[in-house]
Amino acid sequence: MKKRLNLITLFIGIAVGISLYNTFKEDFYVFKMGFLEGFTEVLSIGMRSNNTPKVETVRVTLEPKVFLAMPDSIFDRKTETWLPSRIIRTEICAPAKDNSSLKYLWIFPISFMMFAGFFMILFNFYLIIRSVNKSVIFAWINVQRLRRIGIGFLLYFAAEMFLGMYTNNLRMSLFDVENYNVVTSTFDGSILMYGMITFLVAEVFAVGLRLKEEQDLTI
């Protein structure tokens, strides 16, 4: 029984880790690029003229306005010919509408929320696995840890949602790409689903513990 529980928790940990890693890797890339651009901007303030326009670098997903159309081309060095193509994901550098760097300050608390949620999930899940190895399963401390994991998923989802809303507004305000529609970000509902499932499991554990305590009192 204990080996089976350890095996199940191991596979759950691997699945959650892969999902969070893929999501976190992409979000961390966006955060890193934004941080480097802001840092470069601060260093170049003294050297840049006030008339020099500021630019925004945005990662976008595009879809052709005509289905199956190939509105672009790439050069094939093997055949030395231009081949029809279409762009799916790219980075676009467009003139910024607001030259103020203060608008980026809100990204830091959002990034902190994302990091806090991520490590809250991993740390409490590790504590649960350790409790299972010690044969401490149905305990109030594990209910609290499950609730903390659910809160971590909600924090992560909220941070991702706010970042997605910002990038969507930025994409729509900066440019209009010829022959393409700009695909706005969709929120990853799986993160929210993980959080709700975790809360459900925590409540199931809590109900079971209350019933066990009531049964012990009646005996």
Could you give a short description of this structure?
The chain is α+β, with helices and mostly antiparallel strands and 219 residues long. It has helices at residues 2-43, 107-133, 140-174, 189-218; strands spanning 55-64, 72-76, 81-85, 89-95, 180-183.
| Order of neighbouring strands in the sheet with most strands | 4-1-5
**Biggest beta-sheet profile:** 3 strands, antiparallel
- How many beta-strand elements? 5
Number of helices: 4
Q: Which structural class do you get from the secondary structure elements?
A: alpha+beta
Q: Please report the distance between the alpha carbons of the first and last residues.
A: 27 Å
> Which regions have little confidence, pLDDT < 50, spanning 5+ residues?
none
Quaternary state, please?
A: single chain
Q: What percent of residues adopt helix (DSSP H or I)?
A: 55-70%
User: What is the average of the pLDDT values?
Assistant: 76
Which range does the strand content fall in?
Answer: 5-15%
Q: Based on Cα principal axes, name the global outline.
A: elongated
Helix-strand topology string:
HEEEEHHEH
Tell me the radius of gyration.
24 Å
Give a description of the structure.
This protein has 219 residues and is of the alpha+beta class. It has a domain of 153 residues. The chain contains 4 helices and 5 strands. The strands form 2 sheets. The protein has a 3-stranded antiparallel β-sheet with strand order 4-1-5. The protein has a two-stranded antiparallel ribbon with strand order 2-3. Helix 1 packs antiparallel against helix 2 and helix 2 runs antiparallel to helix 3. The two termini are 27 Å apart. The model has no long low-confidence stretch (mean pLDDT 76).
